[in-house]
Amino acid sequence: MRSIRVLPFALLWLTACSPGVDSTVAVSTAARGGAVVVDVPVQLAPAAPVAARPVPVVVNVAPQGTGPVPVVVQVPPAQVSGGSGGSGGGSAGGGGAPSGGGAPSNGSMPAPEPSAVTSPFASPLIPSPMASLAAEALKVVGVAASAANVGYEAARAVDGNLATEWGSGAGSPTLTLSLNQDAAIAGVTFKTGPTPAGARVLIETSLDGMAWTAAGSAVVAGWGMELQTLAGRPRARFVRLRYDAGTSGKPAFAVFEVTLQAEAAAPAPSGAATIHVDATQVLHAATSHILGTCRNHVASDFKNGAAKLAKLRELTPTWGGGKYLYRIGHGPTDGRNDYAYMTGFHFEQAWDKAGGYPYDDVRNGLADAAAIGADQMHVVNFGTSDADEAGRYVSFLNHAGDANRAAHPAAQQDVRMFELGNEISWDLVRGHDTYAPTETAYATRAKQFAQKMRAASDQPIQIGAVASTNSNWFGTGWSGGATTVKNILTTMGPDVDFLIFHGYPSWPMAKDGDFLTLMAQNEWNRQKLEAEIKPAIKQYAGGRDVFLANTEFFTNLYNDVAHARGVLGALYSADSLILAMNEDIRTAVQFCFDHKDLGDASFFIGDDPNATTAIFKFQQLLAKHWGDQIVATSASGLPATRVTGASASIDLPRLAFSAATTGNRTWVMVLNRTNEGDVTADLDLGFTPAAVTAYELAGPTGWDSANAEVKETPGAALARHVFPRASVTIFEVTR
Asked: Which of 158, 271, 358, 478 could make an S-S bridge to 332, C-beta 3.0–4.6 Å?
């Protein structure tokens, strides 16, 4: 190892080197005291790849005046050509998952090797933790400051020189950067020096330079370039650093350099992006039960209920059987350990009860379904009930001579679909620890329930078993994945007709506040279904047609109403239904119909049946414009975005799509599932259409739009069609 003398607070830029050997390289050191360029012999950390461009390297240095110190130069693998810590993925020896995989990858930068002399500063020059953000710098076209000292003008913060700085006076100073157009901002990299105790740097974004949104904050420990990633990659044209002196008593602020990071561009496709549709190759029948919702209210607290029910009829599909699905039963059905008032639903204890939440007379739910004109699916209490009560429940709904119905009049319902418990695989559900600590224990008892229920019905019924709490195919204490599928199917045999999961964003993809990981959930689930779940069903179902049912899905953004039922919520709904269409998932239930105008009340705003959400508008569009048979689709050259979730990473195609036919008409639905920008693609139908109409749902600010509108375009082009960011387009094509 060679020794060099460097100024304190140095940032080194490595321009060319060979790994594992001593090399003389050109190194520029920039410091508070000035900048010099010297030829310095250094040794790279083992196995570092050769840099194809200047990259920052991590060093620890001693204060000036202590004499020469040994320095270890370590090249961050995410920032050099050939590395995979987030930009390339899948290369041998890299930290990313293989393309299309789902293997865990945290993509974090390795900590720098310590120097022989301990630095007195709190962090290395490029501090850790610093997300290995596969990103490129955005071009800043303007910079302005609220105040500046003479010789420390705002432009000095964006001149590429770490030895110059913008310096402010007292107050709450701001530094504002502007772009030539709005863009997704993945992070802000800046050097300020340590913030005083009690102070912080606030990061704000704006589309117009007037309305500002908080995007992040940082407390800086050292003198290095600090990377602050921004949750959700907000779209902005202006980004502002605001210094909050807080309780520090030190109002002055300085920024030596600042850059804005965008998501790394996906590799350019070899040819034009194209979606191919083969309308002659039918995959399976479309089912109208992928349009449905779940009851989450009681009759005593159902404001404007009759008008809402009437409005919901507009979501009745014109295809695939022509019946909307109304699910009766949800989280409180078995009871929840985390809510004292959710003790479990016992229908014989709720006659003539209108509330309060969450239990009322089951006949209120039957009346809702009749008002909508919907088919019904019922959840049976598994966790705090028994097989005999389950049999009596089915008898009340489906048996002509039922004693309960004689005493409490209702029409015979002839319900065909039942679920054995709601999320009983989760330890927060009452009865899990006793009756469902493993999937085999659950399936053994579920078999008894199923046999009692079938015996009580005058009509054949289909019975579903819980196979996963969420989209990840896990449960508390359960084996997970294909093993869970195997154990349920082999234990229950012919007594199970479908397997249930809930399509909520979940580990290992979902990260709080990161909408891109949320939108990657259905692609992750598609890969899981095709690689593991569906093959296991085929292997262990004994030749029977055991199908999949997604009986609840929702963004899970309970505390973010604008996104939950705005354009982002509509995108998640569209992606969930595209997954259902393509993978023959025969039930997909939007959670939920009505819940006190909260984030999960998916269809109406402010309890107003005429104020419909973006989710309602999307499902209304789909209800009118789709076909009876799902046909084959494929794609070539689609752009993709690398998404790093909580502990898994995938390459997310920016477009999702499905197609259906009836007679001489074909429908193609295309979802631009990210907020990163428009995507241009060709639509190849294999024939020349006689007529084309496009219906496009989008909002003015991408997935941050609180609502959306549908635009109808007769004669829409199929070649080089522009799919706006965060949008859903349905083409109706006549041969």
From this structure: 358
- CB count, 10 Å around CB of 247? 10
Question: Which run of H or of E encompasses 643?
Answer: strand 640-644
Residue 599 phi, psi (nearest 5): -60, -30
Look-up of token digits 């739009």: 705
Instruction: Write down the residue that tokens 């809510």 correspond to.
Output: 339
Token representation of residue 571: 């995108």
**Alpha-carbon separation of residue 34 from 65, 214, 403 (angstroms):** 15, 35, 92
Instruction: Note whether 287 and 586 are within 8 A (CB).
Output: yes
| Max intra-chain CA distance, the chain | 97
Phi then psi for residue 708, to 5 deg, are: -140, 165
337 or 101: which leads in pLDDT: 337
Three-state DSSP at 112 gives coil
Q: Which two tokens stand for residue 497?
A: 């007709």
Secondary structure (3-state) at 651: strand
The sign of the CA dihedral 627, 631, 637, 640 is positive
Contact predicate 73/15, CB 8 Å: no
Q: How far is CA 453 from CA 335, 398, 461, 540, in A?
A: 21, 10, 9, 23
> What pLDDT, in 10s, does the model give residues 469-497?
999 999 999 999 999 999 999 999 999 99
The count of residues in the chain is 735
Say if residue 97's pLDDT is above 70.
no
Whether residue 550 contacts residue 513, with contact meaning beta carbons closer than 8 Å, is answered with no
Strands (E), 156-212: 166-167, 174-184, 187-191, 200-206
Nearest alpha carbon to residue 176 among 212, 217, 150 = 212
Q: Are the C-beta atoms of residues 173 and 146 closer than 8 Å to each other?
A: yes
Q: What is the pLDDT of residues 362-399, one digit of tens each?
A: 999 999 999 999 999 999 999 999 999 999 999 999 99
Q: What are phi and psi of 396, to 5 degrees?
A: -60, -40
* 606 CB burial (10 A radius; 0-12, 13-18, 19+): exposed
CA 111 to CA 336: how far, in whole Å?
43
Q: Return the residue matching tokens 């054949």.
A: 460
Give the integer Cα–Cα distance in Å for 221 and 110: 18
Tell me the C-alpha distance between 30 and 54, whole Å: 14
Closest CA to 286 of 586, 621, 622, 623: 586
Tell me which residue of 652, 688, 650, 656 sits closest to 670, measured CA to CA: 656
Residues 6+ apart with CB under 8 A from 401: none
Amino acid identity for residue 630 in this structure: I
CB 648 within 8 A of CB 509: yes
What is this structure's pTM?
0.67
Residues 274-319: tens digit of each pLDDT: 999 999 999 999 999 999 999 999 999 999 999 999 999 999 999 9
Collapsing DSSP states into helix, strand and coil, what is residue 287? coil
Burial class (CB in 10 A: 0-12, 13-18, 19+), 100: middle
Which pairing describes strands 187-191 and 200-206: parallel, antiparallel, or unpaired?
unpaired
3-state secondary structure of 538: helix
Q: What count of Cα atoms within 13 Å lies in the side-chain half-sphere of residue 120?
A: 5
Average pLDDT over the chain, rounded to whole?
82
Count of C-beta atoms within a 10 Å radius of residue 462: 18
CA distance 621 to 33: 64
Contacts of 1 (CB under 8 A, 6+ apart): 43, 70, 72
Residue 224: per-residue pLDDT: 65
Residues in CB range of 65: below 8 A, 6 or more apart: none
Q: How far apart are CA 681 and CA 719, in angstroms?
A: 7
